[in-house]
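Before any further analysis, we paired sequence with C-alpha cells, yielding the entry below:
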Amino acid sequence: MLSRVIKNKGAPGVDGMTVRKIKRYLKRHWSRIEQALLEGTYSPMPVKRKEIPKPGGVRLLGIPTVLDRVIQQAVAQVLNQIWDHTFSEYSFGFRPNRSQHDAIRQYREYVRSGKRFVVDIDLSKFFDRVNHDRLMSRLATRIKDKRVLLLIRSFLTAGVMLGGLVEASEEGTPQGGPLSPLLSNIVLDELDKELEMRGLCFVRYADDCVIFVRSERAGRRVMESVSRFIEKKLRLQVNQEKSAVGRPWERKYLGFCVTNSRRNPKIRIHWKTIKRFKDRVREITARRRGRSISQVIGELKQFMSGWWNYFGITESFNRLRPLQHWVRRRLRAVIWKHWKNRRTRVRELLKRGVSRAYALTTGCARRGPWRMSKVKWVQIALPDAWFKSLGLVFPWI
C-alpha cells in the first residue's frame, strides 16, 4: 500500500507533506496511528481543493494528505477483495486487469451484434452527489467491523479546505483519493444489477454508462425508465442536456466512437477528440511563446506519444492522416514568425534552395505566418524530411 502511494506520486495535501517524507513519518508515528485506527478514533484531515480544466468547465479534485492516502489505499485493497468479484462483467472502471480499451472493445462488439442505437446517460457531478447514507448501508451489508465503517465515513465527511476554512462534506466522494474509485463502483453496482435484471446490454466505465438497443423507440423508453431509477432509487441526478439516444458512430464514448458499417464496424477516434488534439497542438505551437523549433518539436513529440498510448487502439485512420500535414503547417508558421523580417526570410529561403526571384517575392510578401505556411516555396524550403530530421515523428504512421 505504501509503495503504491509513493509510485503514484501526487501533490501534497493540506499539511504540505510530500510522498518523499511519508516513510520517515510512519517510522516515527506508526504506533500512535495504529492505536487510533484500532480504537476507531483516527480523524483524517480535510482534502485540498484542486481544479482541473475539462471540456465545458472544470473538474473538482479533493487531494487528501499523503498519510490519509496510505490509509485509504490499505482500506481499498481489502474492500477490493470483498467486492470486486461480485461486480458486473460489463463494469470496466477502476478494476484490476480492466481498462477503457476493454470498455470500447465491448462497445464495438455490441454494435457488431446489430444494436444500432445507444442510450448515453450522463450523470451530473456524480462524485459530488453520492449519498453517504445509502453508500454506508451498502457497505454495512458485507463489512461487520464498525471501526472500518466509521473510518470510511470519516473520510467521506472530512470536508474540503477552501481559503483556510473547512467546508463540510454532506454528500459525495472526493475525486483524488485511492478509496473514491472503489466506492463509486459500489454505488453504481446497483445500476449494473438493475440493467442486468432487465436484460439490457450495457458498458460502464466509472460514471460513463451507455446502453445498447435495436431501435430509437426502445432507446427512448429505456432512457426514461433508467433515468427514473437513477434519480429515485440511487438519488443521483441525470444531466438531461448531455444524455441522449443516438447512433454509436455519432456519440462519443471515452473519446471514441465506431464506424458506420453494418458488417464490420471499427473503433474510431471521435471528431471531438481530434478537435481537442488540435487545440492542444495550437497551444504548443503558439507563435508568441518564444521557444526554439527544437523545443516545440520536443514538446509535440511528448504530447503525441502520450496521446497515442491511449488512442492507439483505433482501427480507422482516416481522421489521422490529415493531422500530419496540419501539424507541419503549424510548425512552418512558427518558423516563418521566427524569421521576423523580410531580409531574414529572403536569406533563409535562398539558403534552403529557393531561386532568388521566388525567394524575393515570397520573403517580401505581406501575408501572415499561417497563410505563408501554405505557399509552395515555403514548403520547399521546409520539407517534411527536414522536420523528420529534427525528430518530428507521428506515432500512427
